[in-house]
Design a protein that fits this description.
The protein is α+β, with helices and mostly antiparallel strands and 638 residues long. Helices cover 38% and strands 14% of the residues. The N terminus and C terminus are likely disordered.
């Protein structure tokens, strides 16, 4: 593409498209000293006019369509000169068109830019009015275009501006007639309008036209807020164009419409959460993590680690360039952030309630729901009307591990091999083609586990180290303490609090495994679940904590499960056992107001429910029956 300077500097205007550092943008609006432009995803950005012109002259901004009207090389300096006066007045004066203060600004600017012929206050006032009305196009020198005088006096123009700011650009969004009344009333008070006033005033129709010329983004932001303004400025449904696999991945967590049971007792645990990572280019699923806890930095870490190590199982995955993670999750000071920084992965959160932010992964969850989840016994369906009199708790028969297996098999055997409605290609085929050209970088499970552990400094006491109220022991630590070593660095896996590694300070590369002193509590425990359990434990009375002893942590953990999963029979049973049958009488249990669920054995003899939903699907289940009290059933995907 030719250098911009060969064709003159292009005047920024709505619809003008340009490239900057290889990224493509489109100008949405130009007014009041700034240029508003949008990227491919529709998010709005602003840049100062002077900065836009400088970047264009330097070649950083490359105009895509030079056929649009623009400034000539002769007009450019004139526009920049006028803009310096206008910008100085708008920036420093509360009433930019007031003659006295404006004259001082003109004098300062003329000395600064060494202007031999400074403009008059009336001329600059006209430039200000033209700039507010038409943006930078109002500053282009007019050659043979007719009358160039102000339509209204400077004082009236100031009244119009103030009325629009104080009446129209407010949450109440008052109408044009109210803005007009404000102008007339305020002008009368000041003596500008009336029998003795000589100023020409606008009509109500003129005010209506002025309001229509305002930036829709500015109007919507003032009247409806930032979210509504973003929707006005962004075209809906624009696809995110990504050139390579793993260039951008989208991560989201979804509560599955199915109930899982305890593998030992068959009692209800609740509805699991599935964290998925989708490659935008191929639409392949490159990472999953399933648990019973809601979205957190820990669940995001689980999905990220799975993505990094999937190549060991011959599945799509690897190290991505950019990840768009869950909204509303606090990632600060987490292993997720540490891992992304170590691997140079850019984190770019989507805007809240932005339908285009993670549209691809949200579409996948709909396909997953109708493709397999709502075909499983124990499904809750999407809403009560669809469920009818179907008893999800009694029909539930699959464990968390079962659900993970079935979902993984459906993704790999059905979804990845089905032609995608948007791309027209099967995700696995699209992935394999690009992987042959440029194979993605990956990690082994050992490597991922090592770099995902977050370091903390702790002190050895009696062969033990403590972390977040948990104690870990090792006989090697006792020996180190006897050698005079007190301070050590521990490495914590936020997905597994059962053990921690301790770095030997004098023997580089030597790691000591320290085990939890509360294995019943820490088995399968994540850092997020532990932190939430501690909050519940603190709500207990001191007497309850003394009576429960080490069981206080375990009780708090099961109480957390019950809070998250209201239908959990297992959590209720554990709470009853830990409180010697007192259950709800315990202070901590008073936080839950759900009545106990009767434990029953049931018999079922049903085939899978049919589904009328469209989308990629296979025939994932064989018909299964049970002729004795509850047992876990296994199914196979074809």
């Amino acid at each position: 593409m030719k250098n911009n300077q060969s064709k003159g500097v292009i005047h920024p205007m709505p619809g003008l498209r340009f490239e900057m550092h290889g990224a493509k943008f489109e100008i949405s609006f130009v007014a009041n000293g700034s240029v508003r432009y949008s990227g491919i995803g529709g998010q709005s950005h602003q840049i100062n006019f002077d900065r836009f012109m400088e970047l264009q002259i330097s070649g950083t901004i490359i105009i895509s369509d030079t056929t649009l009207p623009g400034l000539t090389s002769h007009d450019g300096p004139a526009v920049m000169r006028r803009h310096r006066y206008v910008q100085a007045a708008l920036r420093t004066l509360s009433r930019p068109t007031a003659r006295g203060p404006l004259a001082e600004v003109i004098n300062d600017v003329s000395m600064e830019i060494v202007d031999p012929s400074p403009p008059s206050t009336r001329t600059v006032a006209y430039w200000i009015r033209a700039f507010r009305t038409a943006g930078f196009s109002g500053l282009i020198p007019r050659k043979g275009q007719g009358n160039s005088t102000l339509r209204f006096g400077v004082e009236v123009e100031q009244l119009i501006y103030e009325a629009i700011q104080h009446q129209y650009l407010q949450r109440e969004g008052r109408r044009a007639d109210i803005v007009f009344c404000r102008i007339v009333g305020r002008g009368t008070d000041l003596g500008i309008i009336g029998p003795t006033g000589s100023m020409r005033i606008p009509t109500q129709r003129t005010i209506q036209r002025r309001l229509k010329k305002l930036d829709p983004y500015v109007v919507e932001k003032a009247q409806q807020g930032q979210l509504a303004a973003g929707k006005v400025a962004r075209a809906a449904g624009r696809s995110l164009v990504v050139a390579k696999i793993l260039q951008i991945v989208q991560m989201d967590t979804h509560m599955l419409d199915v109930i899982v049971v305890d593998p030992d007792t068959g009692e209800v645990l609740g509805r699991p959460y599935l964290t998925c990572i989708l490659d935008v280019n191929s639409r392949a699923i490159v990472g999953t993590y399933i648990s019973l806890l809601p979205p957190s930095a820990t669940t995001a870490l689980g999905g990220l680690k799975d993505m990094l190590t999937r190549s060991e199982r011959g599945l799509p995955g690897g190290i991505c360039v950019m990840v768009i993670p869950d909204n509303g999750v606090e990632f600060a000071n987490s292993a997720f952030i540490l891992l992304c920084e170590t691997l140079a992965i850019t984190i770019s959160p989507a805007q809240k309630r932005d339908p285009n932010g993670k549209a691809h992964i949200e579409s996948f969850f709909r396909t997953l729901t109708f493709g397999i989840v709502q075909l499983l016994p124990g499904t809750t369906f999407s809403h009560p009307n669809a469920r009818g009199d179907y008893d999800s708790n009694k029909r539930a028969c699959f464990t968390l591990e079962n659900i993970k297996t079935y979902i993984d098999q459906w993704i790999n055997s059905v979804y990845h091999k089905t032609i995608h409605s948007r791309t027209g290609r099967a995700p696995l085929v699209a992935w394999n083609e690009q992987a042959k050209v440029s194979a993605p970088a990956t990690l082994t499970t050992t490597e991922a586990n090592a770099i995902a552990r977050r370091p903390y400094h702790r002190t050895i006491q009696n062969g033990r180290v403590q972390f977040e109220g948990l104690t870990y022991f090792s006989h090697a630590l006792a020996t180190m303490r006897a050698q005079g070593i007190k301070k050590v660095k521990i490495l914590v896996d936020e997905l597994d609090m059962q053990t921690v590694f301790v770095e030997h300070p004098t023997e580089r590369g030597s790691l000591i495994l320290a085990e939890s002193t509360e294995p019943d509590y820490t088995t399968g425990l994540t850092l997020y679940a532990h932190a939430e359990s501690i909050k519940i434990k603190k709500a207990m009375s001191a007497a309850d904590q003394r009576e429960l002893g080490l069981n206080a942590n375990l009780l708090a953990r099961w109480q957390l499960v019950r809070l998250v999963q209201n239908d959990s029979q297992v959590a209720r049973k554990k709470i009853r056992a830990l409180t010697a049958g007192l259950g709800r009488k315990k202070n901590v249990d008073d936080q839950c107001k759900n009545p106990p669920v009767t434990e029953t054995n049931w018999r079922t003899q049903d085939s899978l429910p049919p589904s009328s939903s469209s989308g990629p699907r296979g025939t994932p289940l064989n018909n299964g029956t049970w002729d004795k009290p509850m047992k876990i059933q296994t199914i196979e995907l074809e």
